[in-house]
């Protein structure tokens, strides 16, 4: 089984972001960990990152057209992108929202997710394990 693991703006620069919030893995190391976690549960992860809303939307269209499950960390798009929400809503396969940090324990503008309402579930606050937990959830959802 293949899963698209989509990552939004600034996640490609994790090495430059606050390590107290995002940990100390850079994006390449996070990608390796996600791929390895996928193999553990029999999932092939296609991990992508973009700072562009247009590109994120085109990847969600690809998932919708090909019925591919999605794990998405929309990053800052989480809090305001209705366009990404609408694209995510077209994905009929499982779609899980993930965050490295717990946005609910941070600034108030992060308390709103416009994506959660169209996701099957949200996993936040566990660092890279948020992705691992999402992979377990997707594999169970697809099997059941
Ligand atoms: C994030 C949380 C968002 O609020 C933030 O804009 C990010 C990363 C996370 O993974 O914790 O860029 O999605």
UniProtKB/TrEMBL annotation:
GO terms for molecular function: 3-dehydroquinate dehydratase activity. Its EC number is 4.2.1.10. GO terms for biological process: quinate catabolic process. Keywords: Lyase. NCBIfam families: PRK05395.1-2, PRK05395.1-4. HAMAP family: AroQ (MF_00169). This is 3-dehydroquinate dehydratase.
